[in-house]
Amino acid sequence: MADALVIRDLHVQFHTRRGVYKALNGVNLRLRRGEVLGIAGESGCGKTTMGLAVMALLPRNASFPQGQIIFDNKDLMNLPREYWERVGDRFNPKQNERILRRVSKAMGRIRGVRISMVFQEPMTSLNPVLSVGFQIAEAIYVHDPASLAHRVLARTRATASQMPELLAILGTARDDEAAVKEFAAKHDLLGIEDQVLSVWRRDDVHISRKEKAIRLLAGQQIRPVERNIVETVARAGSIPPRFSRVPVLSRVVRRVLLKEGYRKARELLTSLGIPHAERVLKMYPHELSGGMRQRVVIAIALVNNPEVIIMDEPTSAVDVTVQAQILELVKRIRTSVSAAFLVISHDLAVLAEVSDRIAIMYAGRIVEVAPTDKILRNPLHPYTQLLISAIPTLEGKPVEGIKGEVPDMRALPAGCAFHPRCPFAFEKCLEIIPIDLPHDRDQLVACWLYEAK
Amino acid sequence: MMIAAYGLSKFFPIRGALRSTISLKAVDDVGLKIQNEQVVGLVGESGSGKSTVGRCLIRLLNPTDGEILFDIPDSELVEYERARADVETKRVDAIADRFSLLRASSAELQSLRRLANIVFQDPYSSLNPRMRLADIISEPMLSTRFCSRAEAEIRSRELLREVGLPEFFEDRYPHELSGGQRQRVAIARAISTNPKLLILDEPTSALDVSVQAQILNLLRGLQEKHGISMLLITHNIAVVAYLAEYVYVMYAGKIMEWGEKQKVLRDPQHPYTKALMSSVPVIGETMTRTILRGDPPNLVNPPIACRFHPRCPVAFDVCGWTAEEVAEDLEYLLAGKYYGTFGDGVRVTTEGERTLTIQGTTDAQRIRELVGLENQEVRSLKSVQAIDVLDGATVLRLYEPVEPEMYPTPDGRQVKCLLFRPEVSAPAADS
User: Fold this and answer.
1) At what angle do helices A193-200 and A162-172 cross, to 10 degrees?
2) Phi, psi (rounded to 5 degrees) for A280
3) How much is the ipTM here?
4) Is the Cβ pair B212, A401 closer than 8 Å?
5) Which residue blocks in A337-395 are alpha helix, DSSP H?
6) Is the CB of A319 less than 8 angstroms away from the CB of B45?
7) pLDDT tens-digit map of A92-125
8) How confident is the model at residue B430 (pLDDT cuts 50, 70, 90)?
9) DSSP E strands: which ranges in B182-228?
10) A443 - beta bridge partners?
11) What predicted TM-score, i.e. pTM, was given to this entire model?
12) How far is Cα of residue A117 from the mean position of the Cα atoms in its chain?
């Protein structure tokens, strides 16, 4: 299977007043297309840092001395690496900030469009003074205005006679998506597919209502000025600078496209199972419940059809009953979109529910990766074993804590970072950092115990 | 009996529109008992009022209504319950005067503070950063005059050892400790005055699983050694399964079900407990989930009758449906799934709590069919009692709701659900 994202030997350090904090120490990870990869670990092991590093959202005291993040055959970290390689104790926050800003700018075309992220706390990742509809619409407007322009134009171009034709095709087609795409391409209506499918695929609405809604898509009127502007945006693929510079024009572009963004947002929320989506769009984040907020955040992450979605603790701020709703939603989304998911959580049970494979992190390294069933039934790394035995079960079986504490990331123990807490540690563990040892073809474990095998 | 609460309620005043004061009914008519040396779990989602109950029980908050009897001999308690049932006010007062926490004077309360203590959720904010650990642990002993300062110093060292920390930690400050170590200090502080009752308010939710296991084992050890009664408040059902003997399940300020741990967790009876238990992800178990729709209610205007009915998958006619709730579902159906039958131009209006009118159609038969077809899925339609045609519109009348009480089940637990109402033959629980 092709890889959606590859992380190779990634190191991230934070330069603090009390020393260099080594948050990631050689992370290796392959995220395959279309899979859900869970990342588990205790707090402070670098799960979130890894997510933020992929998004290039790290603070200004962060440096990347080594490693690659390969997305679409390009290394996202391939910027002034020489500088970071020689910083050491001559770290300069000003200089570093300039570099990070360049990295961030280069990421601008990828972040939010091709790789998107769902953050931990939905209340803080939504803007409290903007309605949620605006926030979803804005995400498309900023990253992919041309798609909105195409949507508007497709509706103006479609004629009342084409729609019954399309409905006839839909009524008989087995693969509705391909059918609509083909129809749209043939009749120069690209941009209408989503709008048609979002109505067509609703199962809580009577067929006659759907047909009516689809017929209403055709022949929308638009003022000639607006039409000109929208056509230009659609042709250019983005908003041309001359529009954003002239205040009158920029306002028209913004109004037309954001309005279309709201339409798209409504379709998306409806497809995520939110009843009365149009009412929710007008609300502000504080008016929504925790579960609803999380759905809105997920909608923002999905809205540009990304290839990779990073979910950082998507359920730790919500209750179990809402968590069950969100997990169900994630399972449903993954069947309908082609994206690969990187789900970060401290709760192995949550990951067991949604992921195909699970990676266990400890002290800034991935210590074990394996398919979900395998890692839970037959964990190899001593840390994974202890972590699983520490989880209390409903039967109330005795639990065992892991003795000792997570190591100080400023002064990691030599050799395997887990050796001070490991019941099986031997001499080699104290000296040499273990490499990733393959086991059974689909399992990797970073532990010297398995070297012989 | 260690502690027994009857009809405990706590309403928080909040400012409403136009300077009116409305109240948030955080805890409403909760009864709870903890035997001597027993660990009782109180589970519920955030906002269900479980922490408020814990705080009311040791009077960190003063309840709006209800009675709390502390450390009462069982014979007296039986007498009290009898008197309460027979409304013998004098007898009730006489017993309450001796054992009630709510009638205790401040001097009495101070000595009671030795007997009951609390461990808070977040060990990062519950320890004063400017105090040494020895001072933190000594504080309750000094403020309740449990012992002298010199004795407290010695005892705080003993306690540090007891909770698994080295004695030389006494001169350290909280910021030098990890989360697990801090929670150990908070536990040491709570048990410093040899309390008989310990309230544990989410003791492990701020900790990682590996540390959580250590703390749970510590708590279990302390409980066995000192025989402390504990109220374990948590949203983590596995934690309750590990420590508690009895479990109370709370939802929206009310107790929904209580009984022995094994029965409640393994074979839940109340629809909410069922959904809650099926939502808990368990490693290595794939089960069919009951996914609840919607979110927990707003407690300023909680749903009438059973507070769980809007989300309940088996709610039926008298569970507390109001015309507005029915109207919303009905409108959704008429405009969506049944658009083909009724088309545009039907409107649903409500008149009062029990009546709603569908304008624009007089086809009562069709509406009756719709209700009959959909009421398995859309539970609010179960509450439709009668459908008539009046003045060119269809009028729906709803059943009168019934307030659920705690009903005992044959296997010795209590469930607050009308499905378990004894006198009426309950409709079959079609789940």
Assistant:
1) 50
2) -65, -35
3) 0.84
4) yes
5) 348-354, 372-377, 382-389
6) yes
7) 888 888 888 888 888 888 888 899 999 888 888 8
8) very low
9) 197-201
10) A439
11) 0.88
12) 4
